[in-house]
Amino acid sequence: MKKLALKAISLPKVHKEKPRFTLPQGIKIPDREKLVRMAFLWPSLLGVGIFFLLPMLVVLYYSLIDNPISHNFVFLDNFIALFNNDAFKTAATNTLTFSAIAVPLAVILAMGLAILLEAKIPFKSQFRTFFLSPMMVPVASVVLIWQVLFSHTGVFNDFLSIFGVTPIDWLKSEYSQIVVVLLFLWKNLGYNMILFMAALSNIPRDLLEVADMEGASPWFKFVQVKLRFLSPTILFVTILSLINSFKVFREVYLLTGDYPYGGLYMLQHFMNNTFRSLDYQKLASAAIVMAIAMVIIIGVLFIIENKFGKDVEG
Prior knowledge:
By secondary structure, the protein is an all-alpha fold. It has 13 helices and no strands.
């Protein structure tokens, strides 16, 4: 009986676990979520590499050689020749002057219009429509309007002749940049205004109510509350307006052609004419200089916004 009882009692079998493979220290297998993220990210990275980084490297290479045939490395000789080129100096001076005038005006006027339309004024919707309508007008139509207004026999000269003013060929005079600045503002103010109106609607109302209860003046509320909350939008609108000011070549080209009056000869004219003459070294050098200038300006804008655009809570 004891033998039968011992046979009935079966002890559990002990299975020896097989040793698991372990990776060397510091090496980890990416989880599925990381693989999925990388799968979605790679097409974008590939597109940026092919269509942006690779052409930029090609442009940099062409700026450092003497010509596309011999490919002799000349280092900074192309840049030195570029800065000694009178056409480039004229184009760079005109472009910087235009941007220095047009960009601050585009930011300040758009912000002022947004604040004005935020208040309770009559015909608010009509004003909004008036400033937004240029966004729907093609560039060619805008240029046609400006030619009718500012040509030598245009509407503006007819109006000034009533007061005995001699007609002026506005696009071939010292006022030519003012004409283009007006065109730039008319074309871009509406979009900038919409961005500022969206930013103003996101300002916490309780902060403005507390400022009213404390007896704060409108100027104090604007500087200490609104302006600080608007700082990211101001930075974005400034960068956007700066980029658009460098692209004003379309309008100027349609108004005046390849070789306009000296005051309207922009960097884009210089680069377009250089491309037609197939001077790749000069064109590549100008593109590199233009890119570096844009990076420096935008970097300075970010530093200024980071220093002065703190949140109210900070």
